[in-house]
Structure formats: C-alpha cells, structure tokens
Amino acid sequence: MLRTPSGTTRVAGVIGDPVSHTLSPTLHNAAFQATGLDWVYVAFPVRRGAAADAVGAMRAFRLVGLSVTMPHKTAVVGALDDLTPTAAALGAVNTIIPRGGALLGDSTDGDGFIDALRAEGHAELSGRRIIILGAGGAARAVALAAASAGAAAVEIVGRQPSAVAACTALAGSSGRGAPIDAVGDADVIINATPVGMAGTDLPFGLDPGRLSAGQLVVDLIYIPPTTALLAAAAEQGATVTNGLGMLVHQAARQFAAWTGQPAPLAAMARAGQQAIFSNL
Ligand code: NAP
Question: Is 142 in the pocket of ligand 1 (CB under 6 A)?
C-alpha cells in the first residue's frame, strides 16, 4: 500500500498530453514504496504550448523530479537552466532534475535502452550492425546511444529524409540511411515506430522472410507485449524483446537521479508487468 501523503511528502510527476494512460506513476510509486521513501508521483495533463508554464510550476511547487513526455520533450528545453550532454545532443528532455536551486534536463531513453539489453543478457552493441525503423524521438535517442556504445553501423529507415538525416547525424560516422530490406543484414533490428500498437501491419512492410536466427529484434512498443513484428521474428528463429525493459530502465535512471539512491529495479519491473497484463 502507498503511504498516505502528509505535509512532508515530496512530489514528483510527469507532464504530457495525453498522460492518463502512462505507466510512469505505476513504476515510480512502486519504487518509492519499495525503498520506503515518503514520495509520491502523479500525472499532470499539460496542454501543448504550456511546457514553460509547467516548468515554472515545478519551481514554484518545488517538485523533486519531473518526467516529460509527448508533446513537451523539445518544448521544455528553453525553460531549463542546464542540459546534460545527451539532452543537448538530442535537443530533447525526458527528465528534469532539481540541482542546487537550478533545473537540469536529461534524456534517459537511450541509456535506458542499453541498460535493458544488458539486463536481459543480450550481446553488447559494440561492433554490431544496428538498424532502426523510424526516425522520431525514440529513434534519435537509440541511435545516439547505439553509436556511443560502439555499434559498427547505425542504419535508419524512415519516411522523411530530413528526419533520417538528423538521426544519422546523431550516430556520427556509423550513421546512414537504409531501405527496409537492409534488415536482412543487421544484427539488431529496432522498431521505433508506433506500427504494431494495433493491427497486424509490419513497419515499412518489412518482409519477415528477411529475418533469421542470430538476430535480435527489439520492438520499443510494450502494449501489446507481443507485436506482429515480434511474433513474425520469433517464428523466423530470431531473439525478440519488447519495450518494457527500456521503459523500466529509463525510469530507473530517473529515480536514481532524483533520489541519489539505486533504483529498485525488480519492484519497478514487476509493477510494470502487472499493469500491462491487467490491462490486456
Ligand atoms: P515519434 O517521435 O512520433 O516518432 C515516430 C516515428 O515513427 C516517426 O519517424 C514516424 O515517421 C514513424 N512512423 C509513424 N507511423 C509510421 C508508419 N505507419 N510507417 C512508417 N513510419 C511511421 O514517436 P516516438 O516517441 O519516437 O515513439 C515511437 C515508438 O516508440 C512509439 O510506439 C512509442 O510508444 C515507443 N517508445 C517506447 C519507449 C519505451 O520506453 N519503451 C520510449 C519512447 C517511445 P513520420 O515522421 O514520417 O510520421
């Protein structure tokens, strides 16, 4: 049971629109409960265009941490005092950390992605050929993290040439655009599009016959837990995993930054799994 908030309870939260279906309160409140912290995490619906107001409210209310989700990840940047190198490179923030009276913006998605692969026991990305389907915010975070982890190639499949170019630039000399059929030559295939949240379509009309054993296929989607892509990849003998690990590990990094304590990963993962399966 969550403890009843009192006059000394500290408040963290998430801003976004929509925000009512986010799993972040589930993960963070499970973490506060597991560690015995008198903290509570709530979802704040903040309309598009009001990100700077929300950052001002964070200062006024002395919130101890704030997660940032769509559509505010870029819009909050100008309202913060400082950015981590990762957030500065991405031009996007998913985490606001109070530091000595100032607010620091960070982006934990990419490192959370790498942490999740490690925690699940997959091979390191160093020296491997990665292909990312999609060129939006998640793709950008993963492209930067994969390149930083030493990937030999970071290939991007996207519909908008300018978005693909921005994504490949983040990956430096290992980044390049690619057609969807290049999945056949990749070691790790990552779906960073929303295709798969509903229906049976595969991203970019991917041909499952190009997937094979020895490949790792990651879908950043976690609802449903098994997308059509993951089912097709498993049928071809590939190793598969969904986006829950990334979600938990990016939240774990937020918890550690806000509290100064290691995150209770098992409690957070358990809470996330329970929430997903109770909604199926
Ligand atoms: P985003 O910034 O809106 O980017 C979405 C990308 O997908 C864009 O490149 C978009 O291309 C592309 N796309 C959309 N519909 C497509 C289609 N039918 N065919 C091909 N490409 C399509 O969203 P995001 O924040 O990157 O999120 C992407 C996915 O990752 C979502 O499913 C989200 O839930 C998931 N995600 C998971 C985590 C996690 O922790 N597991 C974290 C972040 C995101 P256009 O620009 O051409 O539309």
Answer: no
Residues 234, 238, 243, 246: is their CA dihedral positive or negative? Answer: positive
Give me Rg for the CA atoms of the chain: 19
User: Which of 177, 178, 222, 164 lies closest to 197, judged by CA?
Assistant: 222
- The pTM (predicted TM-score) of the whole model is 0.97
1: pLDDT strictly greater than 80: no
Q: Are strands 188-191 and 129-133 parallel, antiparallel or unpaired?
A: parallel
DSSP secondary structure letter of residue 210: G
- The yes-or-no verdict on residue 178 having pLDDT over 90 is yes
What tokens appear for 125 in the block?
């990305």
* SS3 of the chain: helix, strand, coil, percent, to 5: 40, 20, 40
Cα(191) to centroid of ligand 1, in Å?
Answer: 8
Cα 193 to ligand 1 centroid, rounded to whole Å: 3
